[in-house]
Every structure is written in structure tokens, then in C-alpha cells.
UniProtKB/TrEMBL annotation:
<keyword id="KW-1208">Phospholipid metabolism</keyword>
<dbReference type="GO" id="GO:0016020">
    <property type="term" value="C:membrane"/>
</dbReference>
<feature type="transmembrane region" description="Helical">
    <location>
        <begin position="160"/>
        <end position="183"/>
    </location>
</feature>
<keyword id="KW-0808">Transferase</keyword>
<dbReference type="InterPro" id="IPR012616">
    <property type="entry name" value="CDP-OH_P_trans_C"/>
</dbReference>
<keyword id="KW-0812">Transmembrane</keyword>
<protein>
    <submittedName>
        <fullName>CDP-diacylglycerol--serine O-phosphatidyltransferase</fullName>
    </submittedName>
</protein>
<keyword id="KW-1133">Transmembrane helix</keyword>
<dbReference type="GO" id="GO:0016780">
    <property type="term" value="F:phosphotransferase activity, for other substituted phosphate groups"/>
</dbReference>
<feature type="transmembrane region" description="Helical">
    <location>
        <begin position="102"/>
        <end position="121"/>
    </location>
</feature>
<dbReference type="InterPro" id="IPR000462">
    <property type="entry name" value="CDP-OH_P_trans"/>
</dbReference>
<dbReference type="InterPro" id="IPR050324">
    <property type="entry name" value="CDP-alcohol_PTase-I"/>
</dbReference>
<keyword id="KW-0444">Lipid biosynthesis</keyword>
<feature type="transmembrane region" description="Helical">
    <location>
        <begin position="248"/>
        <end position="266"/>
    </location>
</feature>
<dbReference type="GO" id="GO:0008654">
    <property type="term" value="P:phospholipid biosynthetic process"/>
</dbReference>
<dbReference type="Pfam" id="PF01066">
    <property type="entry name" value="CDP-OH_P_transf"/>
</dbReference>
<dbReference type="InterPro" id="IPR048254">
    <property type="entry name" value="CDP_ALCOHOL_P_TRANSF_CS"/>
</dbReference>
Length: 284
């Protein structure tokens, strides 16, 4: 038989239920009521990046690989904007950070993997699927590592202006290099799985590697050459409008050529820190 609680306990139970549904966790913790109005804008941009990456898969299924690559590139542009908009509007949130990581995993991991599979790797489905799967999984692993270390104070790469491994949007752009070459030349050699598969595996490894890669902090130009940088940016924009695929090939080649430079510069910074603080070399 169920016992009927006395009036005092019944009132307390009603109060607890009211607190639960009003945003409190049984009177112990207040639950978030929702996103602020300022947070809607950057999170809407992140959602648009996610939708753009998924739309690239839809274009690839229909055989329109030009539009598929452009959709993923648009996702990369939106991904580069949302964080800066959030900082400008002072709307950073844990929800936005988690949504951004999930969006990146799909737009720059799953999307490029399926596009490459439908374009080339499906002709050898057993081995081709392995290469596509490695690209998607390594992208997710990279983002999980980033989320796990986002609150850690001691990150030597980040403190020196470098990133650990190839970022997810850059990895997606590099993974499409055989596609750029195929678009620009029309040669079927660039579409062969023997070329696309190992290249996808290499990019997957670079994304989860511990190599220090150049970030915005390390690429910041000196004041003396900033006018030249502005002029170069305009020329690159014109080149992208006139010869987009060859320009993207050149950008990818330049990024790959700068990777040893990033390793060398980071090693030099480590030595400088070790010499400045010889008692604590592990923090260098």
C-alpha cells in the first residue's frame, strides 16, 4: 500500500517538481535555459557550415564533383568566420565550441571522405573504403584531442603560436588535391585509387600527428611588409577567380612546403625557452 505523505512533504515535493521544470536540477544546480540572442549568430554560421558540408555529399552522389568541392570550401570559409564573430560579439560558449567540433567532423571529415570515395575510391571498394574511413576517423580523433586539451594551461604548441597537426579544414582542402589536379588537367591518372588512397591516408596521418604546424600567430606578418601582404592577398583572390584549381594546387603545395619550416621554427623557439629557463626544460 502506498503511503500518503503528510502535507508538509507534499508541498516540498511540489516545490521540487516546480524547480525541476523551471530550470533547476532538483534544487541543486540551475540548468541552462537556452542560448542568448548574441550566441545565435555565430552558432547559426556554424550550422550553415555543417549544412554546406553535407550538401557537398549530395552533389557528389549526383556526380557533380565541382559543386561538391565548392560546398566543402564554403563550409571552410564559414568555419573560419564563426569563431571570430563569436569573439567580436563576446558570445563564446561551451555549446558553440561543441557544435563547432561536431560540424567540423562532418563537414571536413565525413564529407571529403565520401566525396573522394564516390569520385575515385569506389572502384576498389575494399581498400578504397579503408582509406576514406581513415580520413573521417582521423579527423574526428583530431577534434576529440582538441576538445580534451582546450582547457589545459600547458600547451607548448599553442603558447608559441603553432597548432598540433594539420587543422581539419586544411586537411579537407589538402585531401582534395588530386581532385584539383584532375579538374585542371583532365588527366585520369589523378583519379586512380592508387594515387587517391595513399594520399588520403597521408592527410589522415598529418591531422592526428604531433607535428607543429603554422597557425595565425606564427604567420603574423611584420609591420614593414603588411602592404605587400595586402597586395598578395588581392592577387591570390584574382587568381582564384580566373584559375581556381591551379591556384588551389599552388596553395596546397605552399602549405606542404611550409610544414618543415614550422617544425624548424618551433624547435628554435623550444631551444630559446630552454636556454631562458634551464631549470624547467619540460615547459619549453
Amino acid at each position: 500500500m502506498n503511503e500518503v505523505p503528510p502535507p508538509g512533504k507534499r508541498a516540498a515535493a511540489r516545490d521540487g517538481a516546480d524547480r525541476e521544470f523551471s530550470g533547476e536540477d532538483f534544487g541543486r544546480h540551475r540548468l541552462p535555459r537556452g542560448l542568448t540572442l548574441r550566441a545565435l549568430v555565430p552558432n547559426a554560421i556554424t550550422s550553415a557550415a555543417l549544412c554546406s558540408g553535407l550538401t557537398g555529399i549530395r552533389f557528389a552522389i549526383g556526380g557533380d564533383f565541382h559543386s561538391a568541392v565548392l560546398a566543402v570550401m564554403l563550409a571552410g570559409v564559414l568555419d573560419g568566420i564563426d569563431g571570430r564573430v563569436a569573439r567580436l560579439m563576446k558570445a563564446q560558449s561551451r555549446f558553440g565550441a561543441e557544435l563547432d567540433s561536431l560540424s567540423d567532423a562532418i563537414a571536413f571529415g565525413v564529407g571529403p571522405a565520401l566525396i573522394l570515395y564516390l569520385w575515385s575510391l569506389s572502384s576498389v571498394p575494399r581498400y578504397g573504403w579503408f582509406a576514406a574511413l581513415a580520413l573521417a576517423v582521423c579527423c574526428a580523433l583530431r577534434l576529440a584531442r582538441f576538445n580534451a586539451s582546450i582547457d589545459l594551461p600547458g600547451q607548448p604548441h599553442k603558447s608559441a603560436g603553432f597548432m598540433t597537426g594539420v587543422p581539419a579544414p586544411v586537411g579537407a582542402a589538402l585531401a582534395f588535391l588530386p581532385l584539383y589536379l584532375w579538374f585542371a588537367s583532365g588527366l585520369e591518372e589523378f583519379r586512380q585509387p592508387i594515387v587517391v588512397g595513399p594520399w588520403a591516408l597521408l592527410i589522415a596521418f598529418l591531422m592526428i600527428s604531433n607535428l607543429p604546424t603554422l597557425g595565425w600567430g606564427a604567420l603574423r606578418p611584420r609591420r614593414a611588409i603588411r602592404l605587400e601582404v595586402i597586395a598578395l592577398s588581392g592577387m591570390i583572390t584574382v587568381a582564384l577567380l580566373t584559375e581556381p584549381w591551379l591556384t588551389l594546387v599552388g596553395i596546397c603545395a605552399l602549405y606542404l612546403a611550409l610544414m618543415p619550416v614550422g617544425v624548424w621554427r618551433y624547435r628554435r623557439i623550444r631551444l630559446q625557452r630552454a636556454n631562458a629557463n634551464p631549470l624547467k626544460p619540460e615547459q619549453a
